[in-house]
Amino acid sequence: xxxxxxxxxxxxxxxxxxxxxxxxxxxxxxxxxxxxxxxxxxxxxxxxxxxxxxxxxxxxxxxxxxxxxxxxxxxxxxxxxxxxxxxxxxxxxxxxxxxxxxx
Length: 103
Description:
It is a single chain. This protein is mostly beta strands. The protein has strands spanning 2-7, 10-15, 19-23, 32-35, 38-42, 47-49, 58-68, 72-78, 83-89, 92-102. It has one domain. It contains no helices and ten strands. It has a four-stranded antiparallel sheet, with no helix packed on it.
């Protein structure tokens, strides 16, 4: 069984036991988190598609870590002008293990 959830403005396809990195969510390591924006649930026999979400559907996960990803460098330069600018950014993320999918 798998589900498509919406979190952080993005869609993730998850199944039981998966570890996914999503945008920063509030919560401590080891705490449970519920995703209520379930867009689709699929299994071997049938597929349920929500309009836009499925009522009473929920995906339950456990927070494994709160961390920052690798640094992304944005370098801007204009030739022959002496202009250059270097900006770095580290995006925060939450790593979640999917425990259960309720339909």
